[in-house]
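To the team - N-carbamoyl-L-aspartate complex, inputs and output below.
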Amino acid sequence: MAFRARHLLGIEGLGPDEITSVLDLADNYVDLNRQDVKHDTALSGLTQINMFFENSTRTQASFEIAGKRLGADVMNMAVDSSSVKKGETLIDTALTLNAMHPDLLVVRHPHSGAVSLLAQKVNCAVLNAGDGRHEHPTQALLDALTIRRAKGRLHRLTIAICGDIAHSRVARSNIWLLSKMESRVRLVGPPTLMPSDAADWGVEVYGDMAEGLKDADVVMMLRLQKERMDGGFIPSEREYFHRFGLDPAKLAHAKDDAIVMHPGPMNRGVEIDGTIADDINRSVIQDQVEMGVAVRMAAMRLLAENLRADRAEKASLKSVDA
Ligand code: NCD
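Output:
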């Protein structure tokens, strides 16, 4: 089996064959999700807990829908009213939940690395739903599925990722994935929002939208992630939109059939003009949301298969010992 991972913590640790196997399975789930009856039994009997320590609309909703469609018992931990507010540490919360025998734990956390740390403490499969500015693997997978379905392939494409790269886990996971699949990644944004070591990431770096978007196949816009900023990174939103906001004039530099992406939530008039976001001939933003459910179904199913295989192996070793 191509997908070997025990947890889905990032794209960095996946091979191209593993990425392809998630996308291939997700394609089937796109079809299932378009039927009236959307049920599968791949996760039946399993318990999925979603723990979101940061706000989320799309990611949390789609993980919940994905688990339910596959027959899992899904529990959303309400972090705001949990003992986290009474000072319990992340690890203690995780150990408490672990004692209830979950099989899949979906975690979003504001600190980079927190989800990997947690994965070392529990006996179930852990999925990273975004950790700080580090990684957001299911976002990159759903972006890849959207691109593959729109362009027919993932290799030899020019993809411009634009805006607040410095604070973006979406950018980092996408750079890993698109580079592994042999596409060319360009990062476009003001120097204040560009990581100082970006040039070492095997990408091209641009400070100007006209140059960065020239002949691009895909234009991926990012939100200004103010919750991760501790000072003034841009002169004003108006000025930022003027230089880096995607409008028809800037998009005209990309290929005629270039698609426009955004992970959401969008700030219209800041990083993207509303007319482009709503242009069904260019924008695939709603497709990204649809692909999000399918990709999460695929990822959880593959992790559950590995988890079951792992448990069966441990059980047989135990019976040999006995
Ligand atoms: C992104 C995130 O949370 O990293 N959103 C998402 O998951 N759809 C991007 C963002 O918040 O700007």
